[in-house]
Amino acid sequence: MPGVPISWYLILSAVLFALGVSGFLLRRNIITVFMSIELMLNAVNLAFITFSYQFKQVDGQIFSFFVMVVAAAEAAVGLAIILTVFKNRRTLNIDDVSTLKN
Amino acid sequence: MQLWLIPILPLAGFLLNGIFGRRLSKTVINAIAIGSVLLSFLWVLKTLAGLGDLQVAHTEQYFTWIQSGILNVGCDFTIDRLTAVMLLVVTGVGLLIHIYSIGYMAHEGGYYRFFSYLNLFMFFMLTLVLAANYLVMFVGWEGVGLCSYLLIGFYFDKQFATNAGNKAFIVTRIGDVGFSLAIYLIVVNFGSLDFGAVFSAAASKPEGTLTAIALLLLVGACGKSAQIPLYVWLPDAMAGPTPVSALIHAATMVTAGVYMVARSAAIYTHAPAAMETVAIIGVATAFFAATIGLAQNDIKKVFAYSTVSQLGYMFLGAGVGAFSAGIYHLVTHAFFKALLFLGSGSVIHALSGEQDLRQMGGLRKKIPWTFWTMVCASVAIAGVPPFAGFFSKDAILAAADRHAPWMYWVGVITAGMTAFYVFRAIFMAFFGEYRGKAHPHESPFVMIGPLAVLGFLSLAGGYLFKVPEFLAPIFPLAAESGDIGPMAISIAFGLGGIALAWLFYIAKPELPGQITTTFSGLYKLIYNKYFVDEVYGAVIVNPVVAGSREVLWKGLDVAVIDGAVNGAGSVARETGGLLKRLQSGNIRSYATWVLFGSVVLLLVLGVMGGLR
Predict the structure, then answer these.
(1) Between chains, do B586 and A98 touch, taking CB under 8 Å as contact?
(2) Mean pLDDT throughout A27-34?
């Protein structure tokens, strides 16, 4: 079947994942970091779907649903935590939220 | 005949006083302590009356203590004529000393502790003499050593007393090693520890084995009975209360070695070399201790060296084959030496703790009862006929004369010195002008009573108790030579010693000073006890202490053992310190590490050829 080659999807997934990782590592705003995590999860989802299509197996798609569920739960809990942190600290800088250190 | 009651009664007294004594009144403590020994004494009398003439030993077996292979040791007690003599001495003299202690210890702290230790001592001493095998004897042997240690160090707040207790314990331990080795040898060679079995088989064993056993037993006896070279603990043991010196370090415990040698006579008689060693050690100890006694100024030290010297006589008696003479001297010595110690205790009590003879003098009028009883003991120990010491000492000297004349002569010279130093102490303490500062007062009746009884026994004990004849079924009597020459010489030496002491300390008091300046080197040698303590200190004690401190403590303990433990600890701490830096608390550094780890994992998997 002529169309977009499999490798393109995988390259897109890797690029998205790398973007998520670098965003996670380099940005200080908690919301940006949170978005980077979502980006990584979706990059992985893309890889799952691609392989599922490639090998004609449904496992990858099931996994991607699981990942979506986890991402949704994480978004709900994570955003609540971020809100609470902001209310208490008046800051969203991730380096300032280090009370548990030491 | 319920022999076990004899030692168990003092043990009960020990337990009662030891556990509840703190809350009991002195009257109750006295009743328990003296009552238990009195009952024990009465039970000894009843037992002896019930057993008749005791021509054969009466043995009671209670239970099997140890059963292992060929070895079968029972907790057995036996009583024969030798045991009977020892039982009477231990419980009789012990009872008198217990009574005396009521008065002597009246103003001391730790009253109940003193009497409970004393009762515990009686228990172990009676176990020692009643034992029917070497292992039960060893239990009593170690137990009396423990009580000796506890009572020497009774004034535990005084450094010299605790040091003396340690010294006594450690020095006698050297002897106990010999005794325990002898027990092993007996087990190996005889397959039994029972006296009866061992002694009946002794004749058929090779002489070398018997000599080794006998010499090892002698090492134990030397430690316990303060013979050369292990006598050094006994003079220091005078740091304990005076009744302890009388009971343990004069009358009973220190004679345990003599008793043990006499008990093992069947082994010794088949080991002539060991017998000769016993005799030589005995005569040497008698002589050297007597010379040291000549120049001591502490009244208790004089009698301590006298005890060592008299114990040497007993060993001499045993060594020349006159076991019954040795035991005879043990009995009379228990009377007069206990009396000398109790009398000197009465003097010390009267002078509120003064022990230096140079601070005494003129006490004859002030404490007449003490004076007269001590004179009784002194004539007895000096060998003046017809008092107790004369008979026993003469029996030993006669046997020594038959064995080897040089031993007889050394013994006779020692007898002269004995008379001299004892009467020197008497003259210095009781005659002349009073030189001290305290106000002497006669001791209470509870102390004078035992003194009087012992005084009577010192005078008449030689007549009343014909020990050699009583022991004849065990130790056959030697034929009387009928020659009174040796006896006359020893009497002459004894009287000569007394006369010399009178000359030196009454008639011409300036004479001792002149003699000590003339022979100042010799005097210093004797006054300092031949520097034996210093030599032992330099040759044995200091190297052991230095080795323990430098090698075992600072080398082995600190460097190796502590080093290993501390090393393990510091390695863990250093590693933790390094790992701690990873846990920075910075979330992005964690993420970096995760990334780094997964990249490394992927690379490794790629190099290894991927998952399969």
Answers:
(1) yes
(2) 90
